[in-house]
């Protein structure tokens, strides 16, 4: 669906489509664990977040050069634009690349080559959000923030992703304090597989302005009330929830009840190459399976701009 929208929850490494993965593997002499794109698509049957992450980290090893990151981001921006995305706040996972000897400069400069030309080429404005891997140590996160020092003019904020359970937000208190002192905006994944308490911690300990996923807030009525009162945006990803089995079926997704409760929900694609669709596909899916009417879809689109890091003038122009 091509209603103008902002995408606020999108991992750029999760936009690596099988065709591009094989093309980059050939270009860089990297061997992939699957023989061809069909075998790869077969591997996209996930049991949970971890089984997805295992493939996600394995496939991203094809990304080696600035040009690879540029090609990846440019392909995403073209697809997003075709589905009505006018503004994208894009996550990237530097630790997954630094660990393979791919430098911060290669990643950021490569992404920037695509992002820098995006308004002109695709009509999509962009921001970059650097995520810390929560299953790595707090020290590693702090070293990553240090490594980003020379590129901070290109990075709008920090986020927290990867395996959630057992890695509560409080583990990253100091690195979020350091990020705030540098003027970076703050978001974090919380309440995808982890409990509602992680959402509260992300707000109170990390000072996040948005919660990525936040789905499990529905288990705690007092938390829902707080999120409504404080107008905390939630970046939901319905197709991701189905594929990672955080909900049983799309028809059973709590989005309609969340909107009825007054939560500030947005709809996003998370890792579209893996979960079966880009931003517009997620809008189409919730419209079809949940019977959301035009009013609700307009609300979701409006929320996406309100919850973005665009200032008011920029948001008006993007819409
Ligand atoms: N959840 C947590 N970490 C991630 C995801 C996700 O859906 N995608 C990429 N990293
Ligand atoms: Zn995510």
How would you describe what is shown here?
With 319 residues, the protein is of the alpha/beta class. It has a single domain (5-318), classed as Metal-dependent hydrolases (TIM Barrel, Alpha-Beta Barrel). Helix content is 48%, strand content 15%. The protein has helices at residues 18-28, 37-42, 49-59, 66-82, 94-98, 104-116, 118-122, 138-147, 173-181, 196-204, 221-229, 238-243, 255-260, 272-275, 279-290, 294-306, 312-318, and strands at 5-11, 85-92, 125-133, 157-161, 185-190, 210-213, 233-236, 264-267. Strands 1-2-3-4-5-6-7-8 form an eight-stranded parallel β-sheet. The protein is globular and about 50 Å long. The two termini are 15 Å apart. The mean pLDDT is 96. Bound molecules: hypoxanthine and zinc ion. The site of zinc ion (ZN) has 6 residues, from strand 1.
Measure the end-to-end span: 15 Å
In percent, how much strand structure appears in the residues? 5-15%
| Hetero ligands | hypoxanthine, zinc ion
Number of domains: 1
- What proportion of the residues is helical, as a percent range? 40-55%
Strand order of the largest sheet: 1-2-3-4-5-6-7-8
User: Main β-sheet, in a few words?
Assistant: 8 strands, parallel
Backbone shape: globular
- Helix count equals 17
Structural class, from secondary structure content? Answer: alpha/beta
User: What is the CATH-assigned architecture?
Assistant: Alpha-Beta Barrel
Order of helices and strands: EHHHHEHHHEHEHEHEHEHHEHHHH
Could you name the CATH class? Alpha Beta
Name the average pLDDT: 96
Gyration radius, to the nearest Å?
Answer: 18 Å
Oligomeric nature of the chains: single chain
